[in-house]
Amino acid sequence: MKKLVSTIAMAAALAACQSPTGPAAGDQTAAATPGAAAPYKAPRGPDGAHPDLNGVWQVLNTANYNIEAHPAQAALQLRPGPYVPVPAAEVVALGAVGAVPAGIGIVQGDGKIPYNADTVAIRDENRAKAVENDPEVKCYLPGIPRANYMDKPFQIFHSDKAVFFAYEYAGAVRNVFLADPGEAPVDSWMGQSFGKWDGDTFVIEVTGLLPDAWLDRSGNVHGSTTKVVERWTPTSDYTMRYEATITDEETYTKPWTIAFNLYKRTGEDAQLQQFKCVEFVEELMYGHLRKTPLPGPAAERAKREAAERAKEGN
Fold first, then answer.
1. Which helix (H) or strand (E) holds 64?
2. Pairwise CA distance, residues 81 & 70, whole Å
3. Most buried of 101, 104, 136, 309 (most Cβ within 10 A)?
4. Does the pLDDT value for residue 262 go beyond 50?
5. What contacts 109, CB < 8 A, 6 or more positions away?
6. How far apart are CA 216 and CA 135, in angstroms?
């Protein structure tokens, strides 16, 4: 009997420890409650009025594989197998290294990108040829918002007069205008960025983005009239909340939002390395142009293109 009473008492104590005693998340009266934690206020930056965003930042998610929720799978590009899909011939030798890790997704709401019917077909075609067509494979610049959730870090530099982003992947950069520059003169991979403060949140409007950029390795895309509105909000000394609302009436049925956490590197990790990958893809993109192409895909492509030229000549 004593043992039973002791067990019940212990269970009650554990339940009390695990039960929340403060106000529910999102309760706006929390800050006014005596003893409640005050809202986080970030250290002030160079202008003395707004948060300091300087530093090296990086995600800890798998959104670059697929921004929608996804299970682990054998490869980015699959082909029909005798029972289940198997890795495409181009990547089968990679084994587990070429597999896709699971992810909870960063698309808010129902977790699905609200594509129109035509764009769903484009996404599916991209996905079927992901290894061949993903701009990241060829070391093209990643575009916005993709640059912010790749697996490589980026650094924010800002003063009271300038804000600049440097990305490790492909040496990508972007300068954020602090005065409205007007319409982008030309579309580009990284687009045109115009930023302003909204309280402790730095808001950047990105326009002039090339439609060639993908949103991830799974073939998700944006269009030629896409506008991205980013919100960068410090949430602690070492974390920042990133949100981006994406609008494109030609591509989506409605605006939609992604959101995730960024983490600030510290100590010796707070630095960028070089990953200027253009030279890494020279064999992939130009190997078939060698006088004597190396055995493998380059030689096969050179042979195929020679046959096509001969056919056209006839």
1. none
2. 20
3. 136
4. yes
5. 256, 257
6. 10
